[in-house]
Amino acid sequence: MTFSVSRVQWEQAAPLLKIIRERVFVCERRIPKQVEFDRRDHHATHILVCDDYSQEPIATGRIFSTGEISRIAVIPSFRKHKVDKLILNALLIIAKEHNLNEVFIYSPLDAVQHFRDNNFIPSGAVFMEAGMPKQRVVCSLEDITDTKVYLSH
């Protein structure tokens, strides 16, 4: 399988990004819509991944100029293809373009080990958000050298 990874702005791609996030966060994880779709989307750079065969939008993630990465979502049937790694690499490329020193994620507690496996380290105490335990994980961009993904505009 092959995928197209694109940098998009909310204003142009909101309908496609919403399809993915509603399916993953609202339906699957039961996060209230008003929590999932915050006013911050307009201030982020988003990644949209589409399946090259079906042209279906299958994954997304966003990054802010502060280095905060969030809303990484992959449609369940594509998770076995490690599409989340494509998203993370694309977001790290954007962070480097913005000359950031580090990025961080408020990770669900059950995903902290996944991010540890991708050069992030836990930072701070566990806290609750939208009824879900989370922990901040941080990654120094100096430690990242393997960001192999073609990022189209």
Automatic annotation (TrEMBL):
SUPFAM superfamilies: Acyl-CoA N-acyltransferases (Nat). The keyword Transferase applies. The keyword Acyltransferase applies. It comes from Thalassotalea piscium. GO terms for molecular function: acyltransferase activity, transferring groups other than amino-acyl groups. Keywords: Acyltransferase, Transferase. Residues 1-153 form the N-acetyltransferase domain. Pfam families: Acetyltransf_1. It comes from the Bacteria. This is Putative GNAT family N-acyltransferase. The lineage of its organism: Bacteria, Pseudomonadati, Pseudomonadota, Gammaproteobacteria, Alteromonadales.
